[in-house]
Design brief:
This protein has a 5-stranded parallel β-sheet, with helices on both faces. Helix 4 runs parallel beside helix 5 and helix 11 crosses helix 12. It has 2 domains: 94 residues, Orthogonal Bundle (Helicase, Ruva Protein, domain 3), CATH 1.10.8; 162 residues, 3-Layer(aba) Sandwich (Rossmann fold). By secondary structure, the protein is of the alpha/beta class. It has 12 helices and 5 strands.
């Protein structure tokens, strides 16, 4: 299958702004590296973590970068993304993610997960549960998580729970009824807005991965791209891709501010 014309127009080897990217090609800006460091340190210390941020600010990138630094020989990472389930179905999903057979009742499922976690501890594997979209967690599940986090009466921290979600997650965790869980989360991370330098670095990184050897975006275009996207990666991908397509259709070799402005005025076409 031949590459789209706009790709060949710029001499690229692949679509630059795509979600299909392997971990070792992942981009993490300098402004986010400290967050990755704290997340990794918390997991190594068998602690619990909350990671919040607006959509598109790079929460998934941080998680994937942390995964790269936690060796398979010492950690067992389990990713759960269906946060809207009830307590029993949530634990059943967790069982399946761990490669276990789900049990019939909530109590049986919880016991099975607890025993599995304990067995991993004897194998010197530290389980890390990554719960994405955690701001949507059923309240029963949220109230029950403190039992997992309190495994062994605080004497045996056999797992780490990483709750990831929108800023509303912290609002929920700080409610009085969730104080038991919140008090056990010592590493509380928040991803603020990206910096203009982050957007520039991201564009350069993705274009370089696609085989581009020169700057295709003018500095004014990058400034407007950051301003209009707020540094949100999904919006950057969408606007930058459409700008490149339009530049190719007009046989232009660079993307300037006017071209970005045209995309913003008319939307994708």
């Amino acid at each position: 299958m031949s590459a789209p014309r706009w790709i060949s127009h710029f001499g690229l080897g692949m679509v630059p702004f795509t979600k299909d990217i392997v971990d070792h090609d992942l981009w993490v800006p300098l402004s986010r590296k400290s967050v990755v460091d704290e997340l990794v340190e918390a997991c190594r210390g068998r602690g619990h973590v909350s990671l919040t941020g607006e959509p598109g600010v790079g929460k998934t990138c941080v998680l994937r970068a942390a995964r790269q630094r936690l060796p398979d020989s010492g950690f067992r990472l389990t990713y759960c993304h269906n946060a809207t389930l009830g307590r029993r179905d949530f634990y059943r999903q967790l069982c399946m993610a761990l490669g276990m057979h789900p049990k019939a009742t909530a109590a049986a499922v919880f016991f099975a997960v607890s025993e599995h976690v304990k067995n991993l501890g004897t194998e010197k594997l530290h389980p890390v549960f990554l719960l994405d979209e955690a701001h949507l967690l059923n309240q029963q599940v949220l109230e029950h998580l403190h039992i997992l986090s309190n495994y062994g009466w605080d004497s045996a921290p056999l797992l780490s729970i990483v709750l990831v979600g929108l800023p509303e997650l912290e609002e929920r965790l700080t409610l009085h009824k969730n104080r038991s869980l919140w008090s056990r989360i010592h590493t509380r991370l928040n991803l603020g807005e990206s910096l203009p330098e982050d957007t520039n670095e991201y564009i350069q990184h993705r274009m370089s991965l696609a085989g581009c050897k020169r700057d295709l975006f003018d500095s004014d275009a990058l400034a407007l791209l950051h301003e209009s996207s707020g540094g949100r990666l999904r919006d950057i991908d969408r606007i930058a891709t459409e700008s490149l397509k339009r530049a190719a259709r007009r046989k232009l070799k660079r993307v300037d501010r006017q071209l970005i402005a045209g995309v913003l005025d008319t939307g994708d076409d």
